[in-house]
Amino acid sequence: MTDRALRVLMIAPTPYFADRGCHVRIYEEARALTERGHEVCIATYHLGRDIPGVRVIRIPAIPWYNKLEAGPSWHKPYLDMLLLGTVLAEIRSFRPHLLHAHLHEGVLIGSVATLLHPIPLLFDYQGSLTGESLNHGFFGASSLLVKLFRALERFIDRRADHIITSSASGKAELITEWGIPEPRVDSLIDGVDTEVFRPLSRSEARRELGIPAEVTLVVYLGLFNRYQGVDLLLDVIARIKQTAPEIHFLLMGFPDQQYRLKAEELGISGMITFTGRVPYERAPLYLSAGDLAVSPKLATTEANGKLFNYMACGLPTVAFDSPINREILGDDGIYVEHGNGAAFADAILTAIGNGSMLASLSGKSRTRAIDVHSWESRSRQLDTVYRRLLT
After folding, report:
1. Beta strand pairing status for 185-187 and 334-336?
2. Nearest alpha carbon to residue 122 among 21, 26, 1, 52
3. Could you tell me if 13 and 103 are in contact, meaning their C-beta atoms sit under 8 angstroms apart?
4. Can you tell me the distance from the alpha carbon of 115 to that of 104, in angstroms, rounded to the nearest whole number?
5. pTM as predicted
6. Which of 211, 251, 248, 257 lies closest to 229, judged by CA?
7. pLDDT in tens, 250-288
8. Helices marked H in 158-282
9. Does residue 224 come out as left (phi exceeding 0), alpha (psi in the -120 to 50 range) or beta?
10. What is the pLDDT of residues 205-225, one digit of tens each?
């Protein structure tokens, strides 16, 4: 099967597409594979929107379930049973060469499907199931559910024929913490479409957003929750207000209602423009409004996809010093001690006060995105993994 086009059925137990990191990886992989000549179908929940270019099939509509945000839910078991039925029906009609399962639930669904249809199963690992549940507060660290989820996670990790991870640290975690043999794991970090994500018109973006041209603007794009560091970011803005209240922040993402209220309580709402959820297609323009980007993500077990988009748009970026962030940004990031809000605020102020450094990092970031992180190169790697599975 060296040159043969493949039929790939992706299993995505999530409300795809909902303009967030996990979904971006699913979409970009599918799009890049399609451009290589493969036929890709994504099986997913009833919620979300279709993006042209990749075929999507969905479970039957569940009127009472409308959660688009990331995180665990007690509704997932029956949603996943419906998704299993959808996957089995699609296997019979589509006749895929392999299953590409996203998230742990996707692997569980795929492993059941392969009992009836013995085809290779690839696990696209984006972080620990137990770690994600703890990050989202689904249960506490002392809960009995931790042991249950760890046992389930260990079981699921062994169901796939091969695993790809979205970071080198994810690969190391699977090998050292979960005991997966190294030959069964490859690191395939996220990428970015540098033709779509590129510096666009700063003036047009600011005009659309209602932000004056002369304002210094710091941007954030991503989910709004504690483990993404948004609570910490508001505290950082409150610190910055004490010395530089003229700096403005563009915070793009959802769900944002509680953060709008918190900004009012902290007296910083005048320094912030909240956009709510930004369609993926509009993100390049809105990012182009910024002078500096920030990623205060606190979780250390997951990838950090927003960094690729920041880089491709030529945005210098302040982020916590972690292996995942360094793997993506290389020497072109502005790094801060993990979890240190005061240092994060100082880094923003220092960067904004050094125009020549910002200009240099802008060019270097864009170049690194093109040379190192394009989805074209990632799709070649993924194609190689597929071929290996099918031999």
Report:
1. unpaired
2. 26
3. yes
4. 17
5. 0.83
6. 251
7. 999 999 999 999 999 999 999 999 999 999 999 999 999
8. 168-176, 202-209, 230-241, 257-266
9. beta
10. 999 999 999 999 999 999 999
